[in-house]
Amino acid sequence: MARRLAHDKRANLRKRVLSAAVLGPLVLGVVWLGGWLFQTAVVVTAVLAVREWVRMIAPGPLGRSFYLSCSAIALVMVLDVAAGPLVAFGAALALALVLAVVPWAGSARVTGADRRIAAFGVPYVGASCVALTWLRSDPGVGMLLILFLLLTVWANDIGAFVVGRGLGGPRLAPSISPAKTWAGFWGGITAAGLVGGLVALVAGAQAPLAAVVLGAVLAVVGQGGDLFESAIKRRYKVKDSGQLIPGHGGLLDRIDGLVAAAPVLALFQAVVGSRLNWL
Description:
Order of helices and strands: HHHHHHEEHHH
Oligomer: single chain
Radius of gyration: 19 Å
Number of strands: 2
């Protein structure tokens, strides 16, 4: 039994590495090209992510909650392109309210708290995707902002995994995600801060230390997003949000940290970042 488990873990790790080797360059290429290709990729990601969100809460036959939530996030992304991020996010909140409280917008299998959680997926995913398109649209540092975000989130994931598995120790949140440790938490923060500073140095930024601090902050936020999704999965007794990516599970399983971190970076950039010349 132990030998079989070890074999399964190695096979799963190989799938994870292969998937990352294929998807990583593809994502970076889309970020590099930007424009309509990037916007299209974000729209598709938004719809797939909300699809997985609702399916976690309401598996089985598709109902109105599923179709209306997917339609709502698609409308939010269209408004983002046509009218800008503030209108799009306002629409996400309004549509979520409709999905949560209007009787016709729900379904017989999704009621009460489950219905409100399902509706929350629209602004939750929508805020992240709107933030991504806004960050990339900056004509000066848009591409660098997205690269900084992606690389720090990835560094956080890798650092947390490697250090957590290597050192073990006390559990970070055993009732939510038993595999996560405090060692992994600090490993992810350290890796994200270092990678953030490196990106700033390569870009010739005047304040690379600010990038180190921001990378670490995004790591904390990203791990919070990871734990939040883990709590949702535990509530609904599902292991993965889906089966879209071999070795990784669903799309949300891979972008949970990004979903949480993207709005924070956008808010920082909008309020003070553009004046700090940190990147």
